[in-house]
From TrEMBL:
Protein location: Membrane
PROSITE patterns: PROKAR_LIPOPROTEIN
Protein name, entry field: Membrane protein
Span of domain TMEM205-like: 11-108
């Protein structure tokens, strides 16, 4: 049963890495570099909707990471739990702090203010840190030797 859990955790981490990588490195540059089709404001609105959908996946991943951290602590006393809990914290920050702020700024049309630009830059940095943390968690979890089935 715990081996199945390990596979599900790796799958969830893979989906999370894919979502972060695809939305941040593939979708966003395409949306924001199509001035003939979308202006910056509408591209931002569309990207915001993509992030809202992606946040559903990331929030599930955060729950899986917290549960896996508990399992790892009980079985391995592994330092991996700090990567997992750090990833869950970054997901929570992105989903419940940065995304609502950015969506609110879009709704009030204040996306050119210095505060918005600073928050947006912070959210981009957080997203990059999340990608690195999820990749490290995936690699460490994949290489962690099973002990009592986990």
């Amino acid at each position: 049963m715990l081996r199945l859990w390990r596979v599900l955790v790796l799958l969830a981490l893979g989906v999370g890495v894919g979502m972060v990588l695809f939305s941040g490195a593939c979708v966003a540059p395409v949306l924001f570099k199509t001035p003939g089709i979308l202006d910056q404001h509408h591209a931002g609105i569309l990207m915001g909707r993509i992030f809202v959908r992606g946040n559903y996946l990331l929030n599930v991943l955060a729950g899986v990471l917290v549960l896996d951290a508990l399992v790892l602590w009980a079985v391995h006393k592994s330092g991996l739990l700090f990567f997992h809990l750090g990833g869950a914290a970054l997901i929570a920050l992105f989903s419940f702090y940065y995304t609502p702020y950015i969506l609110s700024a879009q709704a009030t049309n204040t996306t050119t203010s210095p505060q918005f630009l600073a928050m947006h830059a912070q959210s981009e940095t957080l997203f990059k840190a999340l990608l690195v943390l999820l990749c490290l968690s995936f690699i460490w979890r994949a290489l962690l030797r099973p002990k009592r089935g986990v």
